[in-house]
Amino acid sequence: MGLVLTSCQRSPEAFIQIASASVEAVAVDGLRAVSISAAVIDEPAVIASSPNILAARTASPGNVAYAICAHVQNWERPSESEHLRQLAAIPRYGKTIYEDPLRSLLADFRGFPVISFATYGLSARSEPLYLSGVWTVLDDIEACYSQGQPARMGEGELGETWLMGYAANGLIWVDGMYQLTVEPAQGLQILQFERQEELATLPMRVVAADGMAIQVHAGDYVGSW
């Protein structure tokens, strides 16, 4: 199961600066890459020339290759009252958004800064997108779903994680779990990565640079309402 990157090349001189603050496009050997400012470490990188993949990391023992397919720095989750008002105005939800099970689902998707996906479930991303507030930037995240990624998710090849208020700076597979290290950052970041297992939900632990655990919500919505 290989992570599909368009027109990639490996260069010993190519590095991505990994850190916690803002992301900006830079040229590396004539290709587009991502430089995350306030660098912590330099790592050899696979640089993707496709504009639909912002950055990718090489897989070495213990490391898991991943692609940052979207980083929307100006995204901000609406307040709960505004979110409810917006959803109630959508025919799909209407007044049912104020009732269970939707009200409880909304609380789950609003209550966690990290949402992981092994599959999109019967809702085909609709409920996660609307209940998390991400639906307000659909155009900005289109690259995450326009190159066959949903099909690969359905085949168990890719996993996906949404970070809200955080940015990824390392992903490893250890002790039968994904361990994702993050730093505080503005907006929304979506990363997709090679599955290392075949479980119904992703076994994922998310930690800050200081080791503090960050709660993760499994967004694999398969119910009905």
Give the topology.
Elements: E1 8-19, E2 23-28, E3 31-36, E4 39-48, E5 55-56, E6 66-72, H1 80-88, H2 102-110, E7 114-117, H3 126-132, H4 149-154, E8 158-174, E9 177-194, E10 204-208, E11 213-214, E12 216-218
Parallel strand pairs: 7-12, 9-10
Antiparallel strand pairs: 1-4, 2-3, 5-6, 6-9, 7-8, 8-9, 10-11
Spell out the key features of this protein:
225 residues; mainly beta; 8-stranded mixed β-sheet; two-stranded antiparallel sheet; 4 helices; 12 strands; 41% strand
Kindly describe this structure.
- The structure is a single chain.
- The chain has helices at residues 80-88, 102-110, 126-132, 149-154, and strands at residues 8-19, 23-28, 31-36, 39-48, 55-56, 66-72, 114-117, 158-174, 177-194, 204-208, 213-214, 216-218.
- With 225 residues, the protein is mainly beta.
- It folds into two domains: 8-69, no CATH class; 80-218, no CATH class.
- The strands form three sheets. Strands 5, 6, 7, 8, 9, 10, 11 and 12 form an eight-stranded mixed beta sheet that branches. The chain has a two-stranded antiparallel sheet with strand order 1-4.
- It is globular, with a radius of gyration of 17 Å.
- 33% of the residues are buried.
Write a compact overview of the structure shown.
The chain has about 220 residues and is mostly beta strands. It has helices spanning about 80-90, 100-110, 125-130, 150-155, and strands at about 10-20, 25-30, 30-35, 40-50, 55, 65-70, 115, 160-175, 175-195, 205-210, 215, 215-220.
